[in-house]
């Protein structure tokens, strides 16, 4: 059996200490970049596919006629559909219709981010537990999820009303530990989405396709 180096020992001891505190395994930026490299390319592709579809839907409504939560709802629904198409059963809904991707030992949630890069949430007990990486959460019926770090994949809205800055964010003790953007991973943006981002063109609306997401037990 190979001996563990000092960094591995530190990691094991650190995670043991976290478990004793009722906290999830610690995530690091370097590990996420390696362990989620393939998934991050897919996630950014999912974002831009959802963005394309969202712009199609929004173009059918004048801004003055849209309800307060309409844009966020359309984006979330478009994202859920694209996520399911890319990740299959790894993407599912937890309690409270919370969209979740479980992959490579991580749980990834999806949320619009504020100007500081934090998810825009109502401060419920569950939300505070997520932002503190607590093991006990009323989100999943499966206890196997208790040790997996929780990440957010989110986006911001600029002053022109465009959805921008997609990024993976890790928050612990209520503070951002790190975020990973397209530039950090040398992500390739689809050409059609570059045109949408740069020109903000409106296109002809089309019907929404069927969503294959399953609901968690």
Could you outline the blueprint of secondary structure elements for this entry?
Blueprint: H1 6-20, H2 29-35, H3 37-58, H4 70-87, E1 91-93, E2 99-103, E3 106-112, H5 125-131, E4 150-157, E5 163-172, E6 175-181, H6 182-185, H7 191-199, E7 214-215
Parallel strand pairs: 1-7, 3-4
Antiparallel strand pairs: 1-2, 2-3, 4-5, 5-6
Helix pairs in contact: 2-3, 3-4
Overall description:
The protein is an alpha/beta fold. The protein contains 7 helices and 7 strands. It has helices at 6-20, 29-35, 37-58, 70-87, 125-131, 182-185, 191-199, and strands at residues 91-93, 99-103, 106-112, 150-157, 163-172, 175-181, 214-215. It has a 7-stranded mixed beta sheet with strand order 6-5-4-3-2-1-7. Helix 2 crosses helix 3 (37-58) and helix 3 packs across helix 4. The chain is globular. The N and C termini lie far apart (39 Å). Mean pLDDT is 81; it is low at 4-10 and 197-211.
Strand content: 15-25%
Oligomer: single chain
Strand order of the largest sheet: 6-5-4-3-2-1-7
The biggest beta sheet reads:
7 strands, mixed
Number of strands: 7
Please tell me how large the radius of gyration is.
18 Å
Mean pLDDT value: 81
Q: Which class best fits the helix and strand makeup?
A: alpha/beta
Strand-and-helix sequence, N→C? Answer: HHHHEEEHEEEHHE
Q: Helix content range of the residues, please? A: 25-40%
Alpha-carbon distance between the termini?
39 Å
Which residues form runs of ≥5 with pLDDT under 50? 4-10, 197-211
Q: What is the overall number of helices?
A: 7
The outline comes out as globular
């Amino acid at each position: 059996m190979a001996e563990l180096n000092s960094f591995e020992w530190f990691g094991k001891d650190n995670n043991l200490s976290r478990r004793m505190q009722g906290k999830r395994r610690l995530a690091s930026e370097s590990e996420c970049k390696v362990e989620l490299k393939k998934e991050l390319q897919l996630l950014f592709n999912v974002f831009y596919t959802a963005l394309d579809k969202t712009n199609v839907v929004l173009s059918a409504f004048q801004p003055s006629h849209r309800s307060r939560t309409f844009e966020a709802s359309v984006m979330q629904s478009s994202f859920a559909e694209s996520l399911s198409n890319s990740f299959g059963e790894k993407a599912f809904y937890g309690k409270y219709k919370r969209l979740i991707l479980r992959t490579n030992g991580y749980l990834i949630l999806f949320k619009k981010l504020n100007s500081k890069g934090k998810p825009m949430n109502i401060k419920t007990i569950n939300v505070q537990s997520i932002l503190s990486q607590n093991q006990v959460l009323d989100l999943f019926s499966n206890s196997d999820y208790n040790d997996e770090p929780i990440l957010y994949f989110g986006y911001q809205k600029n002053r022109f009303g465009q959805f921008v800055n997609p990024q993976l964010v890790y928050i612990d003790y209520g503070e951002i530990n790190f975020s990973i953007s397209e530039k950090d991973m040398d992500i390739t943006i689809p050409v059609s989405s570059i045109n949408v981002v740069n020109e903000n063109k409106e296109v002809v609306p089309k019907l929404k396709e069927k969503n294959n997401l399953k609901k968690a037990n």
